[in-house]
Amino acid sequence: MGLFRLFILAVIGYCAYALWRKYQQHQRLQQRPTTQVTDTVRCAYCNTHSPKQTAVYANGKWYCNEQHQKLSQQ
Ligand SMILES: [Zn+2]
């Protein structure tokens, strides 16, 4: 009887582990697209998509660098 209980516990443990792995994969797949969309902006001068951290914001528009921001004002 002891061996049968051990077997049942092993099956339950494996099921819990498989469910946890599936949940982790699901979470990772859901996070990937949202971070890409929010972190990139389109340059108003050359239409290049660049990260928001390195982009320049001026006059209601995004630019990939300061040079393109100055060139668009001329
Ligand atoms: Zn640009």
Instruction: State mean pLDDT (0 to 100 scale).
Output: 88
**Overall number of strands:** 4
- Helix coverage percent: 55-70%
What's the arrangement of strands in the largest beta sheet?
1-2
Name every ligand kind in the structure. Answer: zinc ion
Along the chain, the helix and strand elements come as: HEEEEH
Our count of helices gives 2
Shape: rod-shaped
Which structural category fits the helices and strands? alpha+beta
Rg (C-alpha, Å): 25 Å
**How far is it from the N-terminal to the C-terminal residue, by CA?**
85 Å
The amount of beta strand, in percent, is 15-25%
Model regions low in confidence, pLDDT < 50 over at least 5 residues: none
Sheet bearing the most strands, described? 2 strands, antiparallel
Count of domain modules: 1
